[in-house]
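User: These chains co-purify. Model them together.
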Amino acid sequence: MKKTYKIEVDCANCARKMEEVAGKVEGVAAATVSFMTQKMNVEFAEGADAKSVMQNVIKACKKVESDCEIYL
Amino acid sequence: MTKKQLKVLYRIVISLVLLIVLAFLPLEGWLKLVLYLVPYLIIGYDILRKAVLGIVHGEIFDENFLMAVATVGAMFLGEYQEGAAVMLFYQIGELFQGVAVGKSRRNISALMDIRPDYANLEKEDGSLEQVDPDQVEIGTVIVVQPGEKVPIDGVVCEGSSVLNTSALTGESLPREVSVGDEIISGCVNESGLLKIRTTKEFGESTVSKILDLVENSSMKKAKTENFITKFAHYYTPAVCLSALALALVPPLFLLIRNGSVNWADWVTRALTFLVISCPCALVISIPLSFFGGIGGASSCGILVKGSNYLEMLSQTRYVVFDKTGTLTKGVFEVTKVCPQEGWSNLNQEEASAKLLEAAAYAESYSNHPISRSLRNAYGQELDHGRVRDVEEISGHGVTALVDGRKVAAGNMKLMKKLNLSAPEAEGAGTVVYVAVDGVYAGYVLIADVLKEQAVPAMRELKKAGIKRIIMLTGDNRATAEAVAAQLAVDEVYSELLPADKVEQVERLLEAKGKGEVLAFVGDGINDAPVLSRADIGIAMGALGSDAAIEAADVVLMDDNPMKIAQAMRISRKCLRIVHENIVFALGIKAVCLILGAWNIAGMWMAIFADVGVMVIAVLNATRCLKVDG
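Assistant: Joint model of the two components:
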């Protein structure tokens, strides 16, 4: 399952970091962040619950960039 | 400027004014520190906050941390003015960069903004109501006024007009539509009022699909982009370790040798080093360049589905064309009418017209493409009363009585059957031999004609660095070779079934050199397997063909083969800018890092190396947007 989320992030390097940590969250098969379109594509692992996984993704992203927003 | 940026601007102005005022006051000791802390905190509180949060989360060595350490360090050393000013300068730089990036991002997005904002519904009293196109159901009648975009795909049920497709194809070829015509969303209605019965939901309409495709293109990252990501991954810790070494190793060495050392000096050098090293310029300018390139291409009607494909386009050395529909128009046309000498006593022109008339009438009851092209060439309304006793002879042709005369039209077998001898026709294509009243009258040559741009397109491709152009076709050998000769393609393979085409492409893929890319160009009609098998699948004439848009990596909205070379030029330019940025950013950083370590470059220079380089790289990246020819 693949979903796209709107995000808000100010710097490109931060977007890169978000991509890196989001990909490592359990239940995420792959994550890409486009700084240009301010979007995050998340491919969930099979059987993962998107909602609870995204909560962890947000937490992980907030850790590396406290100013970022992910709109669910 | 966004609200956030405006707030930063106010903070910059306030602390700048405070700093200037403080510079003129004779201050000493604690009072000086306290007073300077005011502008420092106004300008830097968020940086300090983020730095602390970073440490709490174990994310040290980000920019905020660096700026916090550098400026707090300066405060401890009694350099109050310097500490506050560096923070101020950093914020100015960040703001400038934020505005520049935001602006170019919006520019690119605006270029691709073909999204219709509303659809008009007609209310019972005749007035129009604007609604969100998302809420319009299939089968609803919507009204498109002159000057408005068509929001949803549909069929015209009232009115006629001229549509401008330039938002989709990059070329403003007007298209006339009237009742019953299908109409594609994203076109602009130029003249008359149209009522359209929608055939799709907004989300499934052409315009939504295209937008979706372009917006998601930056998700498919190019090799260069992935390289930079990996690079940044190793680069940042490496630089941090070097900085740590710079802060400890030389001073320890000096301490042992001289017995004393100026620790503050070495710490400052290490901090400067860290500020210089931020990889932002690279990390931002590369995707921005690709994004710009994709935006520029889409404004010419070339949709590139990912940065990776844009990158690969520049490395394309082999182009494989499917003949029908890409190089040729895919419709049959009469290319030659050749009446037999001595058949009639009319002059050449009149005899040709007569021959064509006879053939068109004889074939008038057939709906075969050949018959249609004969009728098209004849050009006049057919009077069916003039034709009688039509008889189709399967695999041969037809015989009929036209104006009471016995006309036979068909292939060589038909002529043989009638015991007539006919000369072998000259030229490629399908030949229709005609006999009238048992006498051979001449032949009509029908062929799929080349697109006007096909020959120059081949020239352009060669100029763009293509090594070999290969043509595949299901047509017979004679036709294929005649077309190949006209186009001067390097290789031609004929009489192929769709599965054979995949095989040919696979063979070519194996034969090509390393780092060389093979592109396949098709019209999207039953060549989806080949499109996906090739390194890059290019579908053309895709306007309104969902299958082609799905299957291909690069989609040409109109059917002009010249666009392939143009796409390659755009790709080249974009990659050149990407490489420029990599070399430029890394070069300046390397120089500044060395200068910083030797204490020649101070904190000011460091901030330039960070922010200045980024702004220049971003400005350079926006050049990708501009597309010429």
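Chain A has a mean pLDDT of 85.
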